[in-house]
Amino acid sequence: MTKTFCLLALAVLFCSYTHAQMTIKTLPYPKTKKVDVVDTYFGTQVPDPYRWLENDHADDTKAWVQEENKVTFNYLDQIPYRADIHKRLEFLWNYEKYSAPVKEGKYIYFYKNDGLQSQNVLYRQLGDNGAPEVFLDPNKFSADGTTSLQGIEFSKNGELAAYQISEGGSDWRKVIIINTEDKSVVGDTLKDVKFSGLAWHGTDGFYYSSYDKPTEGSQLSGMTQFHKLYYHKLGTPQSTDKLIFGGDKTPRRYIGAYLTEDERFLVITAATSTTGNELYIRDLSKPGSQIINVVNNFDNQHSVLDNVGSKLYILTNIYSPNFKIVTVDAGEPGITHWKNLIPETKNVLSATTGGGKIFAEYLQGATSLIQQYNMDGKLERTIQLPSIGSASGFGTKKEDKVTYYTFTNYIYPPTIFKLDIETGTSAVYKKSGAKFDPEQYESKQVFYTSKDKTKIPMIITYKKGTVLNGQNPTLLYAYGGFGVSLTPAFSTSNIILLEHGGIYAVPNLRGGGEYGETWHRKGIKLKKQNVFDDFIAAAEYLIKNKYTSKDYLAVSGGSNGGLLIGAMLTQRPDLFKVAFPAVGVLDMLRYNKFTAGAGWSYDYGTAEDSEQMFKYLYNYSPYHALKPGIYPATMVTTADHDDRVVPAHSFKFAARLQEYQQGTAPTLIRIETNAGHGAGQSTAQLINGQVDKWAFMFWNMGIKW
């Protein structure tokens, strides 16, 4: 390869290469075998020739993964400036990162990463001025840094802690109990815990949730149906843990539990999908008390925020799609007895409590508005935030006088603030060490019109002075599902794009939660096409207004967002140059057959629901909607240990896309090994994945470096 010129910029040597000087020599795609498998839905026969790739533990699947990765990394290795991007991103990533502190017992705990450590380390100190000491270092859990700490809960007095670890990114967890003073292990390690919180009751034991583990050989993809709530008493074997709620009589439930701060009430939530839940309570101050049903349907969402004696504070969206806070006496907790405390507004409400106050956290146009109320529902103040963006945190214990929150936006690196609850004044507690100058960039919100004339918000971020000439490399990222709200957040990786004249755009599609449950329901089941139309309209807005053009536009999304990008590849492959469907739900006829996928049916519907639902899903299901044609440069990404959206989705989609690609653009699948759906990846894995994304995107856009 020939270097045409080099220049020193920002302490990193960048070199420019032209495509005329170098052509990537691609390996042939693996010859993926096809099998004669046909399913019949309402009289329609649906071939599934790549069904064999669903068998995650089969030797031929493992061999296919190795062959695909060989093709992918052979391609990526030839991109001449990939190493330069890696050097630059590693430099940008290498700064100290902190979490907001929390007080447990006599200690203050916080997470810290020195810069490039594989996993964040949990520290503690005595008071604000104590010397920090390492409490738990997940980097010592495994040699390769892929065993991660996935949550810790302390007993109320802070003397005991139970923490969860994930091995290789799996959702199946182990729980280890320790004495916090000397970090000695207490009792046995709990195994095969999945989708669980940990709720201490004194120092006697704690509540947790899990499934019966699927049979050996199908632990990654086997269906999990019977979620159960257990109580583990310290000093006893896990096999004797008492079943509290759930099981065979309540199939396909997600069971969660937590205690009120005074440990008087056990709160149990049961859900059949990602939206809506039953609500139960048990008064633990009364020996032998029964579990009482508060809400007996799944139509709405409810959670207990706090209590004062027998008075419960409940966050709910019943009759109020943007949520409100109500109170009720635990003696008669039914809906008919609920009294409004903080009514619904036009902005979506979430809430936390601390210091004897309620912090109402509103979404106002996908950005944060924080208001502080007393426990009688009287507004005391609006918390002054440093800018327009996302604020999170605020929750703390009742006796605390201060609390902490983190603020960020697309050009404001995460900064931790300390809030005096009595006066409402904030002060910077820990400033970000990110190597980024916000003054050089701007981030603005626009509203564009979707296909059905609905106005959709989008935040666009770029370097000041960028010329809108249609030639700016642009990444359009979205999600659009499950009531999830995409709020402004800083990304170290995005600096690579922004500092080279690129544009980052994030629309808030229907199906999300930015405007409450009404917004969410406009993008589910038979209205899922609204989500795709909103995204298409976002791309067309960027092109029309010359932020970019088809040849300089990349689209990206993960999980449900991976489904979105898969749909874009089949519906509008002419609209963009590069596509990144990540850990996507791509087979819409069989997603509910794996792990906890059945719980996604509220958003998607299933092929078994009705002939109408089957035809709707079959029409847009990315795996099934692929046809021979010309597709953009595509890099599908997944992980071999993803037991949430099983990698079979990506395997089958990539195999068929490679079969049908009639253009010259590469069709690759990058399969991370010893990793899961995303959480718990080592820093090296994260950096390598981002480097490969930018290198693939820039190269296929013909961008000089």
Automatic annotation (TrEMBL):
Keyword Protease part of the UniProt annotation: yes
GO cellular component: cytosol
Annotated EC: 3.4.21.26
Gene Ontology terms for molecular function: oligopeptidase activity; serine-type endopeptidase activity
Record GO biological process: proteolysis
Highest taxon of source: Bacteria
Domain Peptidase S9A N-terminal: 31-431
Catalytic activity line of the entry: Hydrolysis of Pro-|-Xaa >> Ala-|-Xaa in oligopeptides
Residue span(s) of domain Peptidase S9 prolyl oligopeptidase catalytic: 489-702
InterPro entries: AB_hydrolase_fold, Pept_S9_AS, Pept_S9A_N, Peptidase_S9_cat, Peptidase_S9A, Prolyl_oligopep/macrocyclase
Leading EC class: hydrolase
Keyword Nucleus included in the entry's annotation: no
Keywords (A to Z) from UniProt: Hydrolase, Protease, Serine protease, Signal
Short name of any one Pfam family annotated for the protein: Peptidase_S9_N
Signal peptide (residue range): 1-20
Family to which this protein belongs: Belongs to the peptidase S9A family.
PANTHER family registered for this protein in UniProt: PROLYL ENDOPEPTIDASE (PTHR42881:SF2)
Role according to the record: Cleaves peptide bonds on the C-terminal side of prolyl residues within peptides that are up to approximately 30 amino acids long. Has an absolute requirement for an X-Pro bond in the trans configuration immediately preceding the Pro-Y scissible bond.
Name of the featured protein: prolyl oligopeptidase
Organism: Mucilaginibacter gossypii
